[in-house]
């Protein structure tokens, strides 16, 4: 998807305190004027309504919608929404934290007009990610999109930018009700699975293209009924917006074909789950470059696998903070049914060149394209993650690595599970948390996460995670998978 700069006052952040970005009268007027122009264009395309979405702490996309003729007012003054959604559990029950909880209070959802897109899969509808503000015009401290914006600006303060993209995995069911019945049964990665659902996949590709999403590839995955789509990398905010848009397009096209799509990290207890791997590359303007184009810090250096020192430090920072990152990247009880050794899920805190069992897989790309293609794939994230919150935490970890000039350990070229415990200990390879409770403890103990995301975020994320741990206390893997299956 084409990168579109966010230039409207009140919708950008410079890496400093959120309360410096209050929506004032001038900003509201400009937003309203721009929205009025957008609404006229949408009406000419037979768009009737705009879905304003945000992703909650449990990774569920929530929405309020407005008719096109109300878009101008929504952009200037927002649409009311309770802050209690930040403490919704995945079953829509409600917990509370020290900062959020109860029926009182109101937030205002403001559409990000630069990212508004008509949805080809939902004729008559457009989608816009929303930013959440308090009634006084200040940014809500739990707005994950604003957190991600702040982290991109903090990196920019040091002269860095990041390109990112999510791989979206999903499974398609033809069953009725809550049961999962795989919609195709050909061999894993087999052409037979494309043939079985060729019309469905064709319509999906067409809908994504017509919505403005550039698909890099689509293929069958390992589990029955499972597919994966990859899109082109873009700025982190765009990558998270696109991840939401792609998922909702998949959901809509699936329903049109009489199918149901699930992005759950564990669709069936005895099968592999859905990941949401994220690819990251670190870039810096190069003044000595005659074309004045950015250069990729993941290639062309003297470090491991050709990384520059900054690229290595960025990767090392993410590796260091992976246990804490799982609280936002593998955020459900079901996530730990997926995150097991020898399943290509990345269950060990290590990195390796093209190693699909390492939590961090380094991808160089082919000779001749490495300057553009080299990137880091984080494999331990899954489909229950809020993409904005997960990316914000990843960027903060990478920024910490750059700031402290971290170095990577030796790469791992095999499945870590095949090594003995002594061999892993000698190489500094540790298992990632094996439960949500373990990742929450690591998250709360990580000072960087607290500093980068804020006390309100750490407290609320932890409260929601503990609520879901209690929700599934004593449940079997089959019960956990069934209860989670259609929530994401």
UniProtKB/TrEMBL annotation:
Write down the InterPro entries for this protein, in alphabetical order.
Answer: Gln_synt_N_sf, Gln_synth/guanido_kin_cat_dom, Gln_synth_cat_dom
SMART domains, alphabetized: Gln-synt_C
Output the PROSITE patterns linked to this UniProt entry. Answer: GS_CATALYTIC
Q: What is the top-level taxon of the source organism?
A: Bacteria
UniProt key word Translocase: no
**Stored Pfam families:** Gln-synt_C (PF00120)
User: Keywords for this entry?
Assistant: Ligase
Q: Which organism is it from?
A: Actinomadura meridiana
Name the UniProt record assigns to this protein: Glutamine synthetase family protein
Q: Does the keyword Nucleus apply?
A: no
Protein family per UniProt:
Belongs to the glutamine synthetase family.
User: What are the residue boundaries of the GS catalytic domain, all occurrences included?
Assistant: 144-488
Q: What is the lineage of its organism?
A: Bacteria, Bacillati, Actinomycetota, Actinomycetes, Streptosporangiales
């Amino acid at each position: 998807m084409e990168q579109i700069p966010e230039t409207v006052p009140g919708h950008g952040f410079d890496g400093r305190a959120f309360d410096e970005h209050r929506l004032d009268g001038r900003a509201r007027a400009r937003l309203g004027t721009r929205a009025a122009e957008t609404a006229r264009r949408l009406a000419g395309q037979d768009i009737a309504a705009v879905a304003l979405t945000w992703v909650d702490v449990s990774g569920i996309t929530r929405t309020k919608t407005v008719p096109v003729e109300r878009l101008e007012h929504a952009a200037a003054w927002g649409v009311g929404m309770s802050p209690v959604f930040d403490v919704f559990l995945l079953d829509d029950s409600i917990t509370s934290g020290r900062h959020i909880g109860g029926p009182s209070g109101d937030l205002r959802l403001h559409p990000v007009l630069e990212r508004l897109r008509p949805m080809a899969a939902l004729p008559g509808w457009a989608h816009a990610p929303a930013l959440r503000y308090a009634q006084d015009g200040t940014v809500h401290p739990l707005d994950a999109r604003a957190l991600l914006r702040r982290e991109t600006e903090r990196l920019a303060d040091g002269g860095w930018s990041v390109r990112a993209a999510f791989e979206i995995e999903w499974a398609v069911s033809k069953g009725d009700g809550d049961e999962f019945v795989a919609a195709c049964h050909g061999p894993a990665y087999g052409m037979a699975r494309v043939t079985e659902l060729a019309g469905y996949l064709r319509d999906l590709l067409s809908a994504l293209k017509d919505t403005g999403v550039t698909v890099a590839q689509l293929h069958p995955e390992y589990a029955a009924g499972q597919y994966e789509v990859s899109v082109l990398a873009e700025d982190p905010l765009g990558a998270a917006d696109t991840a939401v848009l792609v998922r909702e397009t998949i959901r809509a096209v699936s329903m049109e074909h009489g199918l149901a799509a699930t992005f759950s990290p564990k669709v069936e207890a005895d099968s592999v789950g859905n990941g949401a791997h994220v690819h990251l590359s670190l870039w810096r303007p190069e003044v000595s470059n005659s074309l004045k184009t950015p250069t990729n810090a993941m290639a062309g250096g003297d470090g491991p696998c050709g990384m520059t020192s900054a690229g290595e430090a960025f990767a090392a920072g993410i590796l260091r903070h992976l246990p804490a990152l799982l609280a936002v990247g593998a955020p459900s009880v079901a996530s730990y049914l997926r995150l097991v050794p020898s399943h290509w899920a990345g269950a060990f805190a290590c990195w390796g060149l093209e190693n699909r069992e390492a939590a961090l897989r380094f991808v160089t790309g082919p000779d001749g394209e490495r300057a553009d293609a080299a990137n880091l794939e984080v494999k331990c994230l899954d489909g229950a993650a809020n993409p904005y919150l997960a990316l914000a935490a990843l960027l903060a970890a990478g920024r910490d690595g750059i700031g402290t000039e971290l170095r990577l350990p030796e790469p791992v070229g095999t499945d870590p599970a095949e090594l003995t415990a002594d061999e892993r200990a000698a190489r500094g390879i540790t298992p990632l948390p094996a439960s949500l409770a373990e990742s929450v403890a690591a998250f709360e103990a990580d000072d960087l996460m607290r500093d980068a995301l804020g006390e309100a975020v750490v407290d609320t994320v932890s409260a929601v995670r503990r609520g879901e741990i209690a929700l599934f206390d004593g449940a079997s893997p089959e019960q956990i998978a069934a209860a989670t299956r259609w929530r994401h």
